Amino acid sequence: MSASWKGVFPAATTQFQPDQALDIPATLAHLDRMIEAGIHGLILLGTVGENCSLEYAEKVAVLRAAVEHVGRRVPVLTGVAECTTALACRFAEDARRIGVAGLMVLPGMVYKSDSREAMAHYRAVARATDLPIMVYNNPVSYHVDITPEMFVDLADEPNLAAIKESSENVRRITDLKNACGDRYTLFCGVDDLVLESLLLGATGWVSGLVNAFPAENRLLWDLATAGRWEEARAVYRWYTPVLHLDTHPKLVQYIKLAQQECGLGSETVRAPRLPLIGEERERIQAIIRRAIATRPS
Questions:
Q1: pLDDT band at 129 (very low <50, low <70, confident <90, very high)
Q2: CA pair distance 247, 192, nearest whole angstrom
Q3: What pLDDT is recorded for position 1?
Q4: Which of 55, 62, 80, 256 could form a disulfide with 105 if both were Cys (CB 3.0 to 4.6 A apart)?
Q5: Alpha carbon 137 to chain centroid, angstroms
Q6: Which pLDDT does position 3 carry in this prediction?
Q7: Are 106 and 81 within 8 A, CB to CB?
Q8: Phi and psi dihedrals of 146, rounded to 5?
Q9: Which run of H or E residues covers position 162?
Q10: Across the strands, what pairs with 164?
Q11: 163-195 pLDDT tens trace
Q12: What average pLDDT does the structure give for the chain?
């Protein structure tokens, strides 16, 4: 199954009230701001959306509200991050009923699958739905690596349509192209490798910092995809200190703090995550505020 996805797909934050209850109106308002800035699609309930910190019913509520609110303006995908394959299949079907355009499927959570188990998980979810699927490969965070050779093996599952490549090894883009040709649509999943990934053949970007800098994110995308590399490099060099925040274990706190500093949302996260304090907060704020003060026009 082909999917025509390309461009910038934010890994959207889930907004919370001060008591950590869901704030669906704020979540939807933020989606509007990113759509107005020209993003091409949305991914709800990814890592940045704190999927694993939400209860099942909360995930359904966020997804239903977002699909209804966004309508047909851009494709809406959802992350699928569950501890068991059976629950992932159940959520995939519930998401289909809600009306999402596709799924971004993570390996089974907590348990670190070997290659046979990981491929069995993806095959099971793929066969549980007719929705197109983006396979999220992030061995750095989830310690399960879906290699190019494994993607060759999985190529017979027709609705495995795209790959979010987050190994932090930009060589993987070329290795995937050499192994699989154009079988999969390739998305960069690491913010501070996006320009390199686009040059090597990625046609999409699942971005975290777009939550805070949607207009500048679109500017970088437009310059790069127009082949205006010198201008794109200048924007990328401005943006990169902030983009580095996407590759830290506290990326959710960092991105939400940037979102708050830019007036686009709240930094409130759900425990066990906690807002930043002390020297760490001051250091991250300084990076964000420097970017705000010097942002390109």
A1: very high
A2: 8
A3: 46
A4: 80
A5: 11
A6: 77
A7: yes
A8: -95, 105
A9: strand 160-165
A10: 136, 187
A11: 999 999 999 999 999 999 999 999 999 999 999
A12: 97
Residue 87 host element (H or E): helix 85-98
Token pair of 54 as six digits: 């939400």
Residue corresponding to tokens 């068991």: 84
Q: Is pLDDT of 71 > 80?
A: yes
Q: In the prediction, which pLDDT does 212 show? A: 98
Smallest CA-to-CA distance from 159 within 200, 204, 128, 114 is with 128
Report the alpha-carbon distance of residue 150 to residue 221 in Å, rounded: 30
* Structure token digits, residue 102: 């596709």
91 pLDDT higher than 70: yes
Say yes or no to pLDDT of 2 above 60: no
Residues in the chain: 297
Report the alpha-carbon angle 9-64-163, nearest 5: 30
SS (H, E, C) 170-218: CHHHHHHHHHHCCCCEEEECCHHHHHHHHHHCCCEEEECHHHCCHHHHH
Answer for the pair 47, 79: CB distance below 8 angstroms, yes or no. Answer: yes
Active site residues: 136, 164
Sequence letter at residue 30: H
The answer to whether 73 touches 67, Cβ cutoff 8 Å, is no
208's tokens: 């975290």
Q: Edge to edge, what strands does the sheet with 7-10 contain? A: 7-10, 204-207, 185-188, 160-165, 133-137, 102-105, 76-80, 42-44
Encode pLDDT of 220-241 as tens digits.
Answer: 999 999 999 999 999 999 999 9
Residue 14, SS3 per DSSP: coil
- Beta-carbon count within 10 A of 216 CB: 21
* Contact status, residue 131 vs residue 105, Cβ threshold 8 Å: no
Kindly list the structural domains of the chain, giving each domain's residue range(s) and its CATH number in brackets, ordered by start. 7-237 (3.20.20.70)
